[in-house]
TrEMBL record:
Stretches for region Disordered: 83-105
Pfam families cross-referenced by the UniProt entry: CofC (PF01983)
Annotated pathway: Cofactor biosynthesis; coenzyme F420 biosynthesis
Name of protein: Phosphoenolpyruvate guanylyltransferase
GO MF annotation terms: phospholactate guanylyltransferase activity
Chain residues that bind phosphoenolpyruvate: 165, 182, 185
Enzyme class per UniProt: transferase
Sorted UniProt keywords: GTP-binding, Nucleotide-binding, Nucleotidyltransferase, Transferase
Family, as annotated: Belongs to the CofC family.
């Protein structure tokens, strides 16, 4: 029997019938992570986005529950890196112009995640929509959040600020993803019926947007690709802890 890395208590056994597909969305790399502009030049920020995506996906896809993962992006570099890492790539849908109230509205991220969900609907899998910038995510955290989610319906993991969303979990057939990522998305997901999950999962909750976020992630332990980008950029990684 395995134990929880955070509590030391026995972890729930894997449900042999559980099958999970992970979806991630990445915007165009041009202008990516602008809040890191004073610390990293544009080319390094683009490298960091790709590295964090692949480290996030690696942690999730290492779960015995996960049977596949998809990346939706308009950026050819991201699509190529994801495909080479084993992802199914999904083209980002065109922006709706005639009906701004359509599912996802004019929000490209939400439209992209909905498209990825639609691509696997009907295949008997649950879906976890993850933020693509969780370099300190661990497989144990991913598993724990999925198991804590409501067995039929939507559950949400708020990010470390309590405002954003780092994961949206959909379990059960016929349940729509209904992503509402963006400002105050955690509260909007809860208002739309998603159950807020309260587990202590620091890597899962730490989406990286600022220099402070990078420092926190390094302190927790980031994936190899993220560490390599930061090291090559001269970021002070100090006594970096390996991600467990």
């Amino acid at each position: 029997m395995t134990t929880s890395p955070h509590t030391g208590t026995p972890a729930a056994p894997d449900d042999p019938d559980s099958r999970v597909h992970v979806v991630l969305a990445v915007k165009n790399l041009a202008g990516a992570k602008s809040r890191l502009a004073t610390a990293l030049p544009g080319s390094r920020r683009a490298d960091l986005v790709v590295a964090m995506l692949l480290d996030t996906a690696t942690a999730a896809a290492s779960s015995s529950l996960v049977v596949g993962w998809s990346v939706v992006t308009p950026d050819p570099r991201v699509a190529d890196a994801a495909a080479r890492a084993g992802a199914t790539t999904v083209s980002e849908p065109d922006s709706p112009v005639s009906d701004p109230t359509a599912p996802g509205g004019v929000d490209g991220l939400n439209r992209a995640l909905s498209a990825a969900h639609d691509a696997v609907r009907g295949s008997g899998v649950d879906v976890v929509a993850l933020a693509a910038d969780l370099p300190a995510l661990t497989t144990a955290e991913f598993d724990a959040a999925y198991r804590a989610a409501t067995p039929t319906g939507r559950s949400v993991v708020a990010d470390h600020t309590g405002l954003g969303t780092s994961a949206l979990v959909v379990r059960g057939s016929g349940v729509d993803l209904r992503p509402l990522f963006g400002p105050d998305s955690a509260a909007r997901h809860v208002s739309s019926g998603a159950v807020a999950l309260t587990g202590s999962w620091p890597g899962l909750r730490l989406d990286v947007d600022t220099e402070d976020d990078v420092r926190r992630a390094v302190a927790l332990g980031v994936g190899d690709r993220t560490l390599a980008v930061l090291t090559n950029a001269g970021w002070p990684v100090g006594e970096h802890r390996s991600r467990q």
